[in-house]
Amino acid sequence: MEDQQYIQEIIQRRLVDAKRSAVVRRAKEAKDNVRKNKSRSGTANDLLADLNG
User: Fold this and answer.
1) Which of 14, 20, 32, 46 has its CA 20 to 30 A from that of 40?
2) C-alpha separations of 4 from 8, 9, 10, 15 in Å
3) pLDDT per residue over 6-35, tens digit each?
4) How many separate domains does the chain show?
5) CA-to-CA distance for 9 and 7, rounded, in angstroms?
6) What is the Cα–Cα distance from 12 to 5, expressed in whole angstroms?
7) CA–CA distance from 15 to each of 5, 6, 21, 39, 50 (Å)?
8) Gap between the Cα atoms of 24 and 26, Å rounded
9) Residue 16 is part of which domain span?
10) What is the pTM of this model?
């Protein structure tokens, strides 16, 4: 039983680390997009106006 709990804790930590890495990766990508002027800021209405042409 203790071994199974230990394995569960390891898996949970790995999942947390994987999620954290994904967030970091997405943040870096977003930062790059801002730096390269590939993104804009605005309101939800601005977004809808852009999408609707």
Assistant:
1) 20
2) 6, 9, 10, 16
3) 999 999 999 999 999 999 999 999 999 999
4) 1
5) 5
6) 10
7) 15, 14, 10, 30, 37
8) 5
9) 2-52
10) 0.65
